[in-house]
Design a protein that fits this description.
Blueprint (H helix, E strand, L loop, with lengths): L2 H17 L4 H27 L19
Length: 69
């Protein structure tokens, strides 16, 4: 399931929850879809973090490759 259809289904279930409520099956589906969505977000964020290259002009100070706080 692509991200657009996943979000569309989550939103559809959210609207139904507000109007008439959800059945047990729909609650389980919503929880599963939300977990898939969150895992996708986490994975994308991890990929972004892994692709960051830190450049530090101050050499020989032991801070190369580490984030400054």
């Amino acid at each position: 399931m692509d991200i657009d259809s996943l979000v569309a289904r989550i939103n559809e279930l959210a609207r139904k929850q507000k109007s008439t409520g959800l059945s047990e099956d729909e609650l389980a589906e919503r929880a599963k879809l939300r977990e898939i969505y969150l895992n996708n977000i986490r994975s994308n964020f991890r990929q972004q973090l892994d692709s960051i290259e830190i450049v530090d002009d101050e050499k020989d100070q032991g801070r190369q490759g580490k984030l400054k706080h």
